[in-house]
Design brief:
272 residues; alpha+beta; Jelly Rolls; seven-stranded antiparallel β-sheet; four-stranded antiparallel β-sheet; globular; binds 2-oxoglutaric acid
Length: 272
């Protein structure tokens, strides 16, 4: 049995609503270290929009960049492996947990890009679709600077709704859910202070407004899947449509807890 980081109420909320903000948060010294790491990450990636720091946990191999075109840092991998986070995720996705992704979403003050409403499962290659994202605030994430927003309960049907391609330059991703597929009036704003986090399900409808405020907003999204699912490197859902050059073929996976339950996952690819 994993250590109980989430209370029974919190796991029940995750199951019923598709998201939760746990009482658990990172200690202040870890948050301070992450803020320093974030500034270094941004300095190391002058050519990458700070909302699009994909695979920030993977260090550069060729010309200082990883296979997703970002000069990442081991510090985010260490964060993803932090035992209380892994135990917490295990409480909602089961005993066998793999890390398959990490993205830093930093929306600069005044001109931070909008994250269109979407479901992550639209462009991810594990089957069956399953992931718990832990989105950790490194800086205050508020209504005023474009915090994450969710549509509670939208994961329950386990259905991917139609997404439209939108060719705008000022979006974090170029996939947007068709307007008539959900009711934006039901949105809940997930306001977080540094070190606080939210968890959300792979089918959750979520997005974030542009940051037009004077306060930068940053979160790191850690992506964990149960190994009952297969990270199928031959699949490229929505390839070329997201505006992100994602490379799932060589993406390393880490088994963080338990075993490879489906027996199909490759934990050697992409590791140097
Ligand atoms: O931080 C954001 O603006 C978007 C985050 C997100 O979409 C995600 O973590 O899946």
């Amino acid at each position: 049995m994993p250590t109980a980081i989430l209370s029974p109420d919190e796991t029940a909320q995750y199951r019923a609503q598709g998201y939760v903000i746990p009482r658990f948060h990172l200690p202040p010294e870890m948050v301070k270290d992450l803020q320093t790491t974030l500034d270094a990450l941004i300095r190391a990636n002058p050519d990458v929009r700070p909302e699009k720091l994909v695979s920030a946990h993977i260090e550069g191999k060729q010309h200082g960049k990883n296979d997703d075109g970002v000069a990442g840092t081991r510090k985010f991998l260490d964060l993803a492996m932090y035992p209380p986070l892994v135990d917490m995720v295990s409480q909602v996705i089961g005993p066998d947990v793999a890390l398959w992704g990490c993205q830093v979403f930093c929306k600069p003050a005044a001109h931070g890009f909008e994250t269109p409403w979407r479901q992550d499962g639209q462009y991810w290659p594990m089957r069956p679709l399953a992931t718990c994202t832990v989105w950790i605030a490194i800086e205050p994430s508020l209504k005023s600077n474009g915090c994450l927003r969710v549509i509670p309960g939208s994961h329950l049907a386990k259905v991917l709704h139609p997404h439209l391609h939108e060719d705008r330059q000022d979006l974090v991703l170029n996939q947007r859910m068709a307007d008539d597929t959900f009711n934006e009036d039901e949105a809940v704003d997930l306001e977080l202070q540094p070190g606080q986090m939210s968890l959300h399900d792979v089918y959750m409808i979520h997005g974030a407004k542009a940051n037009t405020s004077g306060l930068r907003r940053t979160g790191v999204a850690l992506r964990y899947m149960p190994t009952t699912s297969h990270f199928d490197r031959s699949l490229h859902p929505a390839a070329g449509k997201t505006g992100l050059a994602l490379n799932f073929a060589t993406r390393p996976l880490w088994l963080l807890k338990g075993k490879d339950a489906c027996g199909l996952n490759d934990f050697t690819v992409g590791h140097t």
